[in-house]
Give the backbone structure.
Amino acid sequence: MEFNSYFGLVGKILTGHEALLVKNVVGTDYFLQAEAARQADLKDALGFPIYLKGKSYGVMEFFDPSIDGIDALWLDFFNDIATQIGLFIEKKIAEKALILSEEKFRSSFEHATIGISLVSLQGQFFQVNSSLCEMLNFSKEELLQKNLKDLTFKEDLVKEMTYLQQLLAGEKTHFQLEKRFITKDHELLWTYSSASLVRNADNIPLYFVYEAQDISVRKHADEKLIHLAYYDILTGLPNKKLLEETLNQTLLTSIVEKGKTVVFFINIHRLKSIHETFGTEICDLVVKQIALRLTDRIQIKDIVGRGASGEFIVVLSSIKSSEVAILYAQKLLSVIKDPIIIEDRKLFITASIGISVFPDDGNQTSTLFKNAHMAMNSAMKGGVDNFQFYTGEMFKQLQEKNLIENHLHRAIANNELSLHYQPIVSMESGKTVEVEALLRWNSKELGLIPPSKFIPIAEESDLIFKIGTWILREVCKTAKMLEKENLLNFLFSINISPIQLKEENFIPLLNSILQEHGLDYKCLQFEIVESQLLENIKESKDTISALKALHIQFAIDDFGVGYSSFSYLRHFKFDRFKIDISFIRNIDKDPKNISIVAGIIGMCEALGIPTIAEGVETKEEYELLKKIGCREVQGYFISYPLAYDQLKAFILKQKEEVALRG
């Protein structure tokens, strides 16, 4: 407070900060109570400031009819009194401030939205707010009987106790951590907790101030994200990523125990067919059933997880010999093979298994997985209910495949691809009725590569579209040249992959190429391998139907190999069946093959569909096939595959021979 000279005696003293003796206050113009003093016969006044630590608290005033003066002793005495009064006032102000502060703290403490508590140095709660009680589902009375250690999840306890000790040692002023409390219902509650230590004026520790914020919603969301990242949604099994991380630990255990760890890559057959036939829901139930069967069979220390859509992975740890892996693989195949009954449907499932062994086939997780997957692919080629161990030869095959694929990317640009044409003749007229276009690749670096090696590689990549387009253009160019020579009186037969037929742009592309060369759809026939058609029948059906509506003919290639059901014939009206070469070779020496081929021909004749015998190499085979009713033949007995000039000469010669006969 500031005082001026017009604020009476008190103002004078406080402004000057020293004692003041006033003679005859009655006559002093700044003494506001002069009349009252005169009536009381008080003439003189003595005042002392109550002034402490640079702060004014008030004035002591003494009035008397006559004050002659004051010596130094009395001045010290009154100054001491003023100081004591100042200390008393200061204490009372501090006490009031403390009371207000405590009331404010209690209000903030009690009404805080986070849990707050005061905890003794031994961990005992001695003051808790309502929020903490609600979080932990205890009453205040119950929680005050608890110790912090009792309510902390054991996996978080060591870290928290370490931090509290660091507070006591002065190594930290506070700490924060994410920890789990144990609630009254014995559930775990995730919190973001922090603590600080309160000390007295002598720096002696008194108690901890402990705060806890409920973060269970966020942690559960984090856990859900982690689960999505590491577990398969459909089966709940560990996914490949988690399996890789877990396998790293398993390998360390195998090293210590001097044992072997085995990785089984399992491919489930027919899932695609089940999905197409019965729908997604039934297919998902099948996958879940298989997952349960595999989980039931493994031991505690072993692992089962899910890879790609039709794959499962099993890790068998710390075995002593590879013979155990053989028995285990047989057991897995047996478990999968048992019929699965869903909604009164009995479904039969088969599988192929690839196996890699640590440390024989690699000492890293990625290597073991890669090698087991290679072995699985090899097992799939060997048929159903089959398992295959990884071998070094598989790696060589993979290297060769990668080498071929790399060079195949440059084959068209380097003019390394060419077409040869093999005639197919009618047994009745002897005329050429079709010519099959056969792709050849003569690599500048690798030499001549057979189609059986590079066509599957092209089909596994986008190269099949690029190569397929090139073939269509070359065939149309050849057909147009023969048409100009008046020699085009047969079909050009092109091997087509169902993968190409699934391409949305296939028919517009084909139409564009035909228009470019001025040709009609009727000059073409597409050949599809039977096994590929059955694997892609649903996706191919609409395109095949649309192409047949344009009068393009279709032939089934390699007919009769490995399939006992011809129900797919109901979906399409095929124009020819090409009997697989395995039935034709040496047919004149094998009565069983004669019966099989005769049966196929009879069935096709009943359907009104001509048959073509592939791979006819001898006159004996030719005569026998003619005898049992085969309509058309193809093979070295008729002609080897021919380059364009050779094909033209073949057609001209055949035309002359037909003219001579008749």
